[in-house]
Amino acid sequence: MNWSEAHLLNSKQKLLNIKLPEHCYEYIRLVAASLGHTRASTGNIRNLLIALGNAEYRLTPGSIQFKGFETIERLQDFISSKVAFTVSIKTDDEVIDRTVLCGEIVVDITGKFLLIAYAREVNTLEIDKLLNNFEIDINRIAAVRTSELPWSTFVPSISVKFRLSPQLICDYLPSTNDLSAVPDSFGTIITRKVYSSELLIRELISYQAGCFVLSPDSLQRKILGNVEQIQCLYNDR
């Protein structure tokens, strides 16, 4: 038993038996699973609470949405069973099908549930090593069905290094995919396993001038391309 577990069993503490509404329980359990706190194939709420008590996470306001739990459960069943599946995604104009060969469910920095999918289709917005990866808003999934294609053993990823200024590191919300955080003379260098460059770029933009991408070069070029597009839009106005 580690110190944290012993602390929870302190004799001065009182046992609280609180009954949560079903949707709240499911939400907390899925958040626990998305952060890596699992037992068997389900989220371990107790371990999540221990981590919160140890200040391993920094809670920030987010867009909590309680719809879509049946879809999440169905996706989890396919993923845990290692069975390829097809999702139908609602857009503003049409419904698009993606054949998922491997995937995982994550929660972004705003609290939104996403399916990170390694798909048969090509994502023209992604960098080379992630060309078949998509981030799919689970609230936009209209249907899920089985596929005859084989399941992949992994989702393609890249290793990204970025530096945060000393002023920002106190506000940094660690990711479960962070591999290391090493201080240097200019701030802290974060190394992260990344499945979606689009998702990462949206997070890095929130740090503004206090963040600098060190590698890979392909991600640097993509960010510079995005900046140039934004500058062109402002120059045309």
Main pleated-sheet profile? 5 strands, antiparallel
* Helix fraction by DSSP (H/I, runs of at least 4): 25-40%
Low-confidence runs: 1-9
CATH topology of the domain at 69-146: SH3 type barrels
Shape: globular
Please give the alpha-carbon distance between the first and last residues: 63 Å
- List how many beta strands DSSP finds: 11
Q: Which descriptors would you attach to this protein?
A:
single chain; 237 residues; SH3 type barrels; Alpha-Beta Plaits; 5-stranded antiparallel beta sheet; 4-stranded antiparallel beta sheet; globular
Provide structural commentary.
By secondary structure, the protein is an alpha+beta fold. Among the domains are: 69-146, SH3 type barrels, CATH 2.30.30; 158-235, 2-Layer Sandwich (Alpha-Beta Plaits). It is 31% helix and 29% strand. The chain has seven helices and eleven strands. A five-stranded antiparallel sheet has the order 6-5-4-3-7, covered by helices on one side. Strands 9-10-8-11 form a four-stranded antiparallel sheet. The chain has a two-stranded antiparallel sheet with strand order 1-2. A hairpin with a 5-residue loop joins strand 4 and strand 5. The radius of gyration is 20 Å and the shape is globular.
Please outline the helices and strands.
Elements: H1 3-8, H2 22-34, E1 38-39, E2 42-43, H3 45-53, H4 69-81, E3 85-90, E4 95-107, E5 113-119, E6 133-137, E7 141-146, E8 158-164, H5 166-169, E9 178-184, E10 187-194, H6 197-205, E11 211-215, H7 217-235
Antiparallel strand pairs: 1-2, 3-4, 3-7, 4-5, 5-6, 8-10, 8-11, 9-10
Compact summary:
With 237 residues, the chain is of the alpha+beta class. The chain has helices spanning 3-8, 22-34, 45-53, 69-81, 166-169, 197-205, 217-235, and strands at residues 38-39, 42-43, 85-90, 95-107, 113-119, 133-137, 141-146, 158-164, 178-184, 187-194, 211-215. A hairpin with a 5-residue loop joins strand 4 and strand 5.
